[in-house]
UniProtKB/TrEMBL annotation:
<keyword id="KW-0472">Membrane</keyword>
<comment type="similarity">
    <text>Belongs to the binding-protein-dependent transport system permease family. FecCD subfamily.</text>
</comment>
<feature type="transmembrane region" description="Helical">
    <location>
        <begin position="247"/>
        <end position="272"/>
    </location>
</feature>
<dbReference type="InterPro" id="IPR037294">
    <property type="entry name" value="ABC_BtuC-like"/>
</dbReference>
<dbReference type="Pfam" id="PF01032">
    <property type="entry name" value="FecCD"/>
</dbReference>
<protein>
    <submittedName>
        <fullName>Iron ABC transporter permease</fullName>
    </submittedName>
</protein>
<dbReference type="InterPro" id="IPR000522">
    <property type="entry name" value="ABC_transptr_permease_BtuC"/>
</dbReference>
<keyword id="KW-0813">Transport</keyword>
<keyword id="KW-0812">Transmembrane</keyword>
<feature type="transmembrane region" description="Helical">
    <location>
        <begin position="163"/>
        <end position="183"/>
    </location>
</feature>
<feature type="transmembrane region" description="Helical">
    <location>
        <begin position="323"/>
        <end position="340"/>
    </location>
</feature>
<feature type="transmembrane region" description="Helical">
    <location>
        <begin position="210"/>
        <end position="226"/>
    </location>
</feature>
<feature type="transmembrane region" description="Helical">
    <location>
        <begin position="105"/>
        <end position="126"/>
    </location>
</feature>
<keyword id="KW-1133">Transmembrane helix</keyword>
<keyword id="KW-1003">Cell membrane</keyword>
<feature type="transmembrane region" description="Helical">
    <location>
        <begin position="132"/>
        <end position="151"/>
    </location>
</feature>
<feature type="transmembrane region" description="Helical">
    <location>
        <begin position="292"/>
        <end position="311"/>
    </location>
</feature>
Length: 347
């Protein structure tokens, strides 16, 4: 990143009038998100015409088509908000660590959240939705600290590649622990295995209600960290020289990202690669200014997860692929491409 350009951005106390290009991109992304949401309501085992979708949204469920749409509305809402949470969290994590490989899945944070939930269910009999969320947030936070500590050891400190390797190793180890815990428990094995794949099927507004407050807090903390992430991108020494409290800025942004990861994992299961793919694509659209990048990453994550859900429904009719499988099929090649193309030292 050009330090002089970023310094110019930081020195502006408030944003100037948004560029016409970015505004046009924002409008275009919002239109795409709306179209994708409507397609999600239309597509499934039973395809529904657009006018029936509009009637169902208005509350009329008198026909089979409209009743089918009514069952898809919570699923679509969950895909949108969970995708937005994961896309935003990934962008924030890349800014905090200055690591282009940072992603809640690659760094093992989603797996840590899922391990905490599985331990709570299997060993302590926890079953309430609020408890799941707290467990997932605790697991995500503990894993992020653990991975960063491991990745910081040795020469060079916490380089992007070391963090990615530490996170991948942690994710594999935690996944093995989840299997070891679940295998002897036939009473919970089916539900846990389905949840572990990561998906938005079977969503209801009652099931999602406990997570709304956590998501709002996470979104607010992350979006308010945009200017601080711009400062951190200059490097810790220069950021401190500009008067920024580096440790405090990282802690606030990290708390927001961890809350988003934990809340999304609690309700959907661990879904990977959304937070890796989306920020890179958004940088091509709006550049490196986090005041633009963060909201675009949230919208991009919502679009990617919803499209992945649609693809999963179409690919295996009359059954379906869980959205976690589809995002892995898209994200794994992208991860390899980023590793091979970039000198993954810092953003």
């Amino acid at each position: 990143m050009n330090a002089r350009r970023m310094l110019h951005l930081i020195q502006q106390p408030t944003p100037t009038l948004p560029s016409r290009t970015n505004l046009l991109c924002l409008v275009a992304v919002l239109v795409v998100a709306t179209i994708v949401a409507i397609l999600s309501l239309m597509v499934g085992t039973r395809d529904v015409p657009p006018f029936e979708v509009l009637a169902a949204i208005a509350g009329d469920t008198s026909t089979l088509d409209r009743a089918a749409v009514a069952t898809r509305i919570p699923r679509t809402v969950l895909a949108l908000i969970a995708g937005a949470a994961l896309g935003l969290a990934g962008s924030v994590m890349q800014g905090i660590t200055r690591n282009p490989l940072a992603d809640p899945g690659i760094l093992g944070i989603n797996t840590g959240a899922s391990l905490a939930v599985v331990v709570g269910v299997a060993w302590f009999g926890i079953s309430s939705a609020h408890s799941f969320i707290w467990l997932a947030i605790f697991g995500a936070a503990a894993t992020s600290v653990f991975v960063y500590t491991i990745g910081s050891m040795g020469r060079g400190g916490a380089t992007p590649l070391k963090l990615a390797l530490a996170g991948t190793a942690t994710a594999i180890a935690f996944s093995s622990l989840v299997i070891a815990i679940v295998l002897p428990r036939a009473d919970i094995a089916g539900g846990i295995r389905s949840w572990q794949i990561g998906g938005v099927g079977g969503a209801t507004f009652e099931r999602m209600e406990p997570v709304y407050g956590f998501l709002i807090i996470g979104f607010v903390l992350c979006l308010l960290s945009a200017r601080k992430l711009n400062v951190l991108a200059l490097g810790d020494e220069l950021a401190a020289g500009l008067g920024e409290n580096v440790a405090f800025a990282r802690i606030i942004a990290t708390i927001g990202a961890v809350i988003l990861c934990g809340a999304a994992t609690a309700v959907c299961g661990p879904i990977g690669f959304v937070g890796l793919v989306v920020p890179h694509v958004c940088r091509l659209l709006v550049g490196v200014d986090y005041r633009w990048l963060l909201p675009f990453s949230a919208l991009g994550g919502a679009i990617l997860l919803t499209v992945s859900d649609i693809v999963g429904r179409l690919a295996a009719r009359p059954s379906e692929l869980e959205v976690g499988v589809v995002t892995a099929l898209v994200g794994a090649p992208f991860f390899i491409f980023i590793v091979r193309r970039q000198k993954v030292k810092q953003l």
